[in-house]
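Request: Could I get any protein with tokenized structure?
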Amino acid sequence: MLNDRQQEVVESTNATIITLAGPGSGKTRVLTERINYLIENGVNPYSILAVTFTNKAAREMRDRLEHRDKRGVTVSTFHSFGVTIMKSLMGFFAERSHSLMLSPELKNVLPRPNANDKFTIYDSDEQKLLLKDVIRSLNLDADVYDYRVYGAFISNQKNKGILPKQCLSEDEVLLPKAALIYNFYQARLLAQNAVDFDDLILLPLVIFSYYPKTIEPFRERYKYLFVDEFQDTNDTQYGLTILLAKGNNLMVVGDEDQSIYEFRHANFRNVGNLMKDRPDHHLILLEQNYRSSKPIVELANNLITQNTERVSKSLWTANEVMGRVEMLPCYDEIDEASQISLKIKRAGINWKDVAVLMRTNAQSRAIETAFIQNRIPYNLLRGTSFYDRKEIMAVIAYLKVIYNGDVQAFKRIANVPKRALGDVALNAIIPQLEGDVLTQLTLWYNGQLKLDIPNRYVNSLKNLSKELIGFREFVVADGSVYGLIEKIIAYLKPHFAKEDNPEDRFENMLELLTVTKNLMVNEGESALAEFLEQTALVSVADGIDDENRVTIATIHAAKGLEWAMVFVAGAEVGLMPHFNCENIEEERRLCYVALTRAKTNLYVSWTEHRMLYGHTRPSGQTPFLKGL
């Protein structure tokens, strides 16, 4: 049963609907109910596109629709949809990429793009390796030109929609050689038929902006566009949304009070920007909270109304469940962890219904120690992602080399297993290989291409080439990605048997076969491409496990989740707001998100003194909550 405001969203006939939905107000349900309503009133599901930010949210929305037999709707993350666009336009883009993206002044010195409709998606580690290569190739001192600083700069530029050729002279003043490094980095990506994660949004926006006819098939198909978590969009995602929705129906759902990802380039002002760009919009506020008890809602509401950059709305609840809010002043982080442990043990509820939320990862040490001492099982909502594990990265890198001879992937696996092809060897070999590395090595191996390979590396390179050629021939002949991965795992097993935790590593590689079964719908080269795309788009932690454990998480990681009992630890000066913060209102929004994760009981703790990063500092209660 929908409330009146929710029903208004579902049945609105306006071409532009802006729904600002407070925490626990049922926004996902409303969005899927509207899609369901449109289909039942004659709209073709094929013409509906729903975009969100995480794979988990996309799966949840898709499952809700399929449960009601509403198949055919495209439900995707922004980046997955970017892949869809680039798969149809990569060949078109590749032919024009140099003039579209790169500085004309550097035309004669930049690597030439590889006009090919295949592409691979570089993960953060491959981006890092490429950026290091670029800095080294420009004969720049790596200690002065820190790849991390320039990587952050490039990502920031891309998320603002600024191309390498558009870098301004003031960028060079703030960050020497910034434009040069950005241009060479992008040129190397293009030459290697690769894109980074930011490109999956930027490149479609560039193509559509410079060649408007390319967007027409997408506009013609998707007459109804839905965007979830709209407050988290960055400038390029906003630009892509506006272009796709031109002349079509658009509904966005979000809440600028829960915008906490400015460090990822999110721009909560996009809510206001949309109001200006689509002045005919219908604004609907969802203010009824179905999640939290009244004391929690009242505290959260009193907190967030102190912010000024927001659309005015007032959260309320009819929830009659008795709940409580309790403040826990503590002497130091050890006392805080002890008090939290004692409260949890006395509560008498399932461990999995409890969470401890923190501003920073570093706060977890004292809490984990106390939980271990008190025999409280816990799950840390962070850590090494499955796809970031060494053995999984190796298998994926082999697949990338087999698929299109990716040079960064080749560097990763050249010495896995160890075969005397380290950095020195690669520095002698790589510059001679252009485009598809495996195709070049195949020609060399068969005596059809001459390469100047130092004698001490020839046998090792021949052995590696033989293995890679065999793998590629297998997938061409057999077409089974599952079988290919089995072969690669068997090949790598002796290598990882010598590493720490060999059984775990082998089991992780076998789990990749499960992933393959879940993802594959085709066979052959197209299936390998699809598999690589899907694994590149998997988010780091789409959820928590179902075991009966207390959750320890940062507030950022906890957004979208809920628990019966929540502890907000470290609600104090220096952490909330953080001593490095640049936006006090975002810090207050972060506190608001933390409070509204609780359903029944909320405990907010702070210390008078805290040892963090090896130093003890005076702290005290956060000013955000004083007087509330």
Q: What stands out?
A: The first strand starts at residue 16 and ends at 21. Residues 539-544 have pLDDT under 50 and may be disordered.
